[in-house]
Amino acid sequence: MSSNESSLPAVQLNSLRRAFGPVVALNDFSLEIAQGELVALLGPSGCGKTTALRALAGLQDLDAGQIVVQGKDITSLRASKRDMGMVFQSYSLFPHMTAQENVEYGLRLRKESRQKVGRAKRAIEMLELVGLDTQAKRFPHQLSGGQQQRVALARALAIAPDVLLLDEPLSALDAKVRSQLRDEIRRIQLELGTTTLFVTHDQEEALGVADRVGVMSEGSLAQIASPAELYERPNSALVAEFVGLTTPLPCEVIDRRAHLLGSSVPVLPGSVTTGPALALLRPESIDLVPDKQSDSIVLTVSFLGSVCRVIVQLPNKTLLTVQAPSDQISTFSPGSGVGFSFREQPVFAKGIPA
Amino acid sequence: MQIGQQQSAAKKPLTQIHTLETGPSTRGAGLRRALRGLPYLGVVPFLALVGVFFLWPTYIVITQAFVDDQGAFTMEYVTTVATSEVNLNAFRNSIQVSVITALLGGIFGGLLSWAVANSRRHGMFRRATMAASGVFAQFGGVMLAFAFLATFGFNGLVTLFFSENFGDSFLSNPTWLYGIWGLCVVYTFFQIPLMLIVFLPAVEGLRGEWREANDSLGGSTLRYWRHVGGPVLLPSFMGAILLLFANAFSSYATAAALISQGSPIVPLQIRGAIGSEVALGGAAFGKALALGMVIVVSVVMLGYVFLQRRVSRWEQ
Amino acid sequence: MKKLTGITRVWRAVILSIIGFYMLLPIVAMADFSTRAGADGGRNFDSWAAIPSAPGLLESIAVSLQLALLAVIGILVLLVPTMIWVHLRLPLMRRPLEVLCLLPIAIPAIVIVVGIAPIYRWLSQFFGSSPLSLAFVYTILTFPFAYRAVNTSLRSVDVNTLAEAARTLGASWPRTIAGVIIPNIRAGILGACVISIALVLGEFTISSLLNYETMQVVINLLGKREGQISVAVSLAALIFAFVLLVAIPTSGKKQEVG
Description:
By secondary structure, chain B is mainly alpha-helical.
C-alpha cells in the first residue's frame, strides 16, 4: 500500500440523504473514516445511525449523496458487490450450518478460497481469532448469545473486507458478556487494522471502544471527536447530556463564566454567553467540603467501588450528583452539611427551556 | 353446570391443604397427596367428551374391523381389504390423488406463501387472502364440488367456452371431472390455501438478517435460496406436504358431492360399505377400510411430527 | 417491511396472477352459472330469489346455525377453561392435551363416523333424532383449529406470570381466570370461535352418513334436482364465510416496538 493511499480516508460518506415519508432519517449526513480507524456512531433510537450504516453496507437506498470507499464511488453498487463485512444485532447466523460452515460461507465465492482445504483453514483461523475454534462443529442453537456474535464477527472478517460494519452487536447480550466482547472486538480490530464503523446507543460502549465517536441526532452529526474530547468539550447541550452524566443547575453567566453555588467556572464555546442558564455539571467536577453551617445536605452515599456517588440536596430542593474517589468521601454521611469547591473545568451552559 | 361444580370442588380443598400442612405430618401425608391430585378433576369433563365421542369410536373402528357378525374374531375383512383388487385399487387411487395434489398444492401454495409473506402485514390484501384460504381449505367441501361443476361440468363456463370456440377438444367433454383427474384438479383447489395457512409461518420465520448477511458476504439471490432459504425451509415444507397428503387422503365431502356413483377412492368405498348394511358384514367391512385409512394417515402424521421437532430445534 | 426490489415485484405479480386466476375462475363460474336465464342467454337472479323457497333449505340452515352456536358454546365452556386450567395448574397434562386436540387430524371424520354410528344409535334414545346431538362430535372436530388459535394466544401472553400476580394480590382462581386471563387471550378465543363456525357450517361427512339434514346435506341433495339454486346457495355460503373471516381479525396482534 503506497503512502498516497494511506492518507486517503478509507470511507467517505458525502451528504447522505434519506427520508421515509415525512421522517428524515439522514439529513445531509457526512462522515469520513480513516484507514484502520474505528468510528462509533452514537445516538438515541431514530437518530439515523443504523440507516447510515446500512446505507454504507448497500442494504439501504439513498435519496441523495455519495459513498466512496478506498477512492472508489460505490454509491450505485449492490450490497453483494461491496466488500463489506457486517455483524448484525442478533439472529444473523445461518441456523442449519455449523459455526465453521457459517464462517466459510463468504469464502466460497472468493477465488483464493475456492479450494475446500484453503477455505477450512482460513475459517478455523478466524474462529481461533475469536477464541471459538473448539466450537467449530457446533450449530448456532448450541451456542450462547456471546458465542454466536463471535462467530458472526469471524464470518464477517473471514472475507477480509474493506470495512467492518457493526450494527449494535452487543445490545442483545447481557452486561458481563457485553463488556468482555466489546474489548475483544477492539483488540481484534486493532490487530487486523480493519477500518470499522460501530453503531450503538450505549455511550459507555462507544466511548470505550472507538478512536472517534460521532454523536448523531435527527439524521446528522452533532459532534465527532475523540471520546475524551467529546466528554470534556461537548459542543452542544445535546452532546453534553447524552455523553456521561450531568446535573443541570441554574446559574448566572457573566463574562463567559457561570456563577453558581458561591463559585464560578468557565463556560464552553457554544454555551449561553450572558444571563441566566443551566450549567451541565459533571459529577466529578465538584469537590465536597464539610460545612456544618451549609443548607446543602447529603441525601445518599452510594459506594461503587473505587468511586462514590453522593446525592446532595441543595437549599432550593434541587438534587446534585457528585462523584469522587471513595477514600475522599468516606467522611460524608447522609444528613451532613457540605460546601462545594469547583475544579477549573469548563462546563456547558444551556439556555433555560421556556 | 357440571364444570363449575368440578372447579369449585377443586377450589375448596386448596385452602384445606394449607391448614393440613400445619398439622402433624404423618397423618396428613396420604390425604394431602390425594388432595394434590384434585386439580386434575378440572379436565374430567373435557376427557369425558373426547373419550365418548372420539376415542371410543376410534376404538370401535380398530377392534371391530376384526369382528364378524357373530362377534368372533376374524381376519376376513382385513384380508379382503388388503388383497381384493377393488380395494387395493381404491387405496392406490387415494394415494395417487393425495400425492399429486400434495405436491401441486405444496409447490403453488409455497410460492403463494412467499408472495403473501412479502405483503404488508396487516394490509387488506393479506387479510382477504388469509380469509379466503380459510374458507376454501376448511369450509369448502360440497360447495367446491358445485363450483367445479359450474366451471367444468356439462354446462360449465369453461366447457361451454371451449366447445363454442375450439370444437371437440378435451375440455369440451367433461367426463374427466368425475374421475381421478377431476379429483386432482378439484382437490388442488383446497390444497393450495391449506398450504398457505400451514406454511406461511415458516416463510415468515426466515429472518431478514439471513438475507442481508448473505448479501453483504457477496451472495446472490440464487445462492441465498440454494444455501440458506431453501435448506432452512425444507423440513417445514416437507412437513406441510405430509399434512396436505393426509388432508387429501381423508377428504370425503367434495368427492361425495362430485361422484355420486362409483367409489374410486377409499372414503367413497366406506360410503358404499356403510350404505349397504343390508349385506352381511357391510359395516365391519367399512371398519376394515377405515382401519386401513387410520394406518396410512397415522404413519404420515408421525412423519409430520418428527419434522416439526427438527424445525423447533433450530428455532432456539 | 423491507422494500421490494424490481424483480421481486415481477415474480410476485406473476405468481399472484396465475394462482389468483385458478382460484377465482370457479367463483366466477358459479356467479355465471347461477345467473343464467335460460337457453336464449341473458341473465337474471331468479335462482337466487328461489333460495328461500327451496325445500328443506331454510330449515337446514337453521339447524346448522344452531349447531355452530352449540359448538362455540362447547369451545367456550369446555375447551378454553380446560386449556387455561392445564396451562396454569397441570403442566404435565400440556402434552397429552395437545395430542388429544390435534388427533382429529390423524383420525379423519370419515373414520369417526364409521365407529360412531352405534354411539349415536344409543344417544338417540335420549335426544331423539334431533340433529342437534351432532353438537357433541362437532365440538371435537373443531378442536385442532380452536386449540391452535387459543394456544397461540396463551403463549404470546405470559399467562403464568399474570396468574401469579393476580393470585398474590389475593384473587381467587375463578376471578383470576375470568378477570385476568380471559381478557388477555380474547383474540385467540375469538379466532377459535370464528373458525369453528365456518367448520360446522361446512361439515358434510358425518351428518350425511348419519342421515341428519344439515345445510351441506341439503345443498348436496338440492344439487341433484336444482343445479342453479344449489350453485347460488353455495356461492352465497362461501361469500358469507369469507365476510365472517375477514371481519374478525384473527392474526396476531401488533407487537410493541421494543
